[in-house]
Amino acid sequence: MKPVLALLGRPNVGKSTLFNCLTRSRNALVADQPGLTRDRQFGIGQLGDRPYIVVDTGGLSDQPEGLDDLMQEQVMQAVTEADVVLFIVDGRAGMSAGDQAIMARLRRYGKRIVLVVNKTEGLDHTTASADFMQLGVAEIHAIAAAHQQGVREMIDAVLAPFPADDVDETDEDQGIRIAVVGRPNVGKSTLVNRILGEQRVVAFDEPGTTRDSIFIPFVRDDQNYTLIDTAGVRRRSRVTEVIEKFSIIKTLQAITSAHVVILVLDAQQEISEQDARLLGMVLEAGRALVIAVNKWDGMSVDDRERIRSELDRKLSFVGFAQRHFISALHGSGVGDLFASIRTAYDASMRQLSTPNLTRLLQAAVEQHAPPLIRGRRIKLRYAHQGGHNPPLIVIHGNQVNAVPADYSRYLENYFRKHLQLEGTPIRVEFRSGDNPFKGRKNVLSKRQVDKRKRLKRFVKRGK
Q1: pLDDT value of position 229
Q2: Does pLDDT of 439 surpass 90?
Q3: Terminal CA-to-CA distance of the chain, rounded, Å?
Q4: Is 298 left (phi over 0), alpha (psi -120 to 50) or beta?
Q5: Domain at 172-349, CATH from 2.40.10.10, 3.30.300.30, 1.10.10.60, 3.40.50.300
């Protein structure tokens, strides 16, 4: 599992700015106004080769009341879910009584606490941190989140005690890990029980029955699998219980630790914005995907046609994923899921040769050349594989920073079609740089050396 980092501190100390820096996103609202963040933001981040989950929280007050009291109760619940608490303070304002009160509350939880002294741009880090040493925190880092100063060094130190790879994706004993995700009450636990052939998880006609992610190993047709049943994720405005809010963390962890994700949809409900948000989490994590449309039994022909049309319209951005229309309760169509799971897994883990990728790149460019940038053509020279799960294709060339997004999507679709990569997203990364053969000695064959010698003798006789 990826380590969970909770960001907390007084209002307006830069928590959301640091969240955006750690996740390389603009998901958290940032403004010079205290108390802007009232709900949690969850993000997957990676600086270097160390992935993690970040939770941005609302500002803590030393005298909470009313709505702030409820909000801060949930902030402290975030502490219980976190592996590391990043306690952020304002290096320019200095230590306050509020910082001391928050520190006293944090000590009750027995969590590892890292003190992050923010807004230290232009200041001496030792001097800026000295005022906070009386808080008694051993780990102190001075940063400037708005300018991304010291953030990389801080996160490297925070993640150092954790194993480099919490999950070994090449471990055959663990088999194929399958995360079952979806909104509450769409039938995830019923599907897990149907796959296993026994009542292994609680299935009840009430949203939110599953509070945590449950890992269940099993064997099917001599292949090892691990099923991950996750808590339902509902729209934020409908999430009221503190425990349910933080089941989102477990779902994010399940998605990122899986090889293949089964998104369960309810055929008797419209596809919602929350379904799209879940798909966004899967795509952000780069995981292979299978879509299971549940509760298909008993529907009329017209209703089935309407659902198919809605899927085509709203889920066109995940056209690579296989769809299955099933009844988890009665078992119809459930067995067919495994062929798509294996196909998606094999595609996400496939090794792609550099010569083949380069030939496909050249063919794609010949069929549809990149656009001109200020009168100069973008040159894409060669491609190689940079990783798997999902397949990462690295393309080298000139002016690659100017490659339009639509041309990048064209290349993704071209590679997918010709490599037959079904069920998995593909990532294309562009890199510019010197010719990889530059600096190598020009080694000539014996025939070429003899030809050059004869040419030199001929020129000399002519003179």
Answers
A1: 66
A2: no
A3: 77
A4: left
A5: 3.40.50.300
